[in-house]
Amino acid sequence: MNKRQFLSSAGIMSLAALAPTTNIFSKKSEENIPSSCILIPSETAGPFPLDLTENTFFFRQDIREDRQGVPLFLKMKIIGDADCLPMQNVRVNIWACDNEGRYSGYSTSGNPDQTGLTYCRGYQITDANGEVEFITIFPGWYTGRICHFHFQVFVNSATAAISQLTFPLEEKNALYAANPTMYIKGADPLTFTTDGVFADGYQYQVATLEYDKEKGQYNSYLEVTVKGGTKTSTGYLEQQNAKQFILGQNFPNPAVNETVIPLELFNNSNVTIQLFDLQGRIITTICDKELSKGNYTFLVDKDGMGIQSKSVIYQLDVRNSQGSFKDCKVITFS
């Protein structure tokens, strides 16, 4: 299976790293940030969303490609408003402009044509803590908009939240001032109240922005509350899967080294289970054979399989006379 066949089920069921996919984020930015459990405001997806859903190329942690800019390590934690608990295995799409205010995939007046380019776009799936991490660059700004990121949270195939995030004004403009060759437009002239999107409220959309001297990087963190919870109702595709199998969460999770994936199969089927890293690269195939209906468990041995990252994805592909059905979940290693 190649990368374009990977994660066809991720999050909504149809779905050159500089840093390794280990724990890249400092805990400093998260300290003393209370859980609000208040729904993130809904915003427009903007004029440049593209469709990350059907393109598995965008499943990646490092979304910089060749863009120049200050490295930014962005972490988001997804909370369900129904129970105020972290939501695991939900898909988070993000996209932003580059350091000069250009979006990949589009041509705009006064800028070189960006059609066909893919920088600063990607998605991840939340781990056992409800978190995703991205390696990117700090975005620039363009006329009429304050510096920002767009994001979508897909709770299931029927439910998604669309919003935007921004950064503290003083810290953001200090970053621009310290890097004038990469951010030639200088300070961002807009404030939260003069930006058309955030003018009606921004309290829950301002991510932290801190420089980690020890690691030589900027870290950013935002907690996002969306509709749903640990017992969120499912969409159509999840309901179709439920007629074929139940793919359980691995246990224990988080795991230290060994963990087990449970599967209940309702029909005789060809079954493939594969592990992928956070850059969408295949690690290993756990199962690839015909199975009779019944209950199964599959062992994942972190050391034995040479897994280096703190999170991996396991994807199930079930094929039988009724069709092809897929699902995936995240294993978190402590």
Folded structure, characterized:
- A hairpin with a 4-residue loop joins strand 8 (about 210) and strand 9 (about 215-225).
- The protein has 2 domains: about 25-230, Aromatic compound dioxygenase (Protocatechuate 3,4-Dioxygenase, subunit A, Sandwich); about 235-330, Immunoglobulin-like, CATH 2.60.40.2550.
- With about 325 residues, the chain is mostly beta strands.
- The protein has helices spanning about 170-180, 235-240; strands at about 70-80, 85, 90-95, 120-125, 130-135, 150-155, 160-165, 210, 215-225, 245, 260-265, 270-275, 280-290, 295-300, 310-320, 325-330.
- It contains 2 helices and 16 strands.
- The strands form 4 sheets. Strands 1, 2, 5, 8 and 9 form a 5-stranded mixed beta sheet that branches. Strands 4-3-6-7 form a 4-stranded antiparallel beta sheet, with no helix packed on it. The chain has a 4-stranded antiparallel beta sheet with strand order 13-12-15-16, with no helix packed on it.
- About 5% of the residues lie in helices and about 35% in strands.
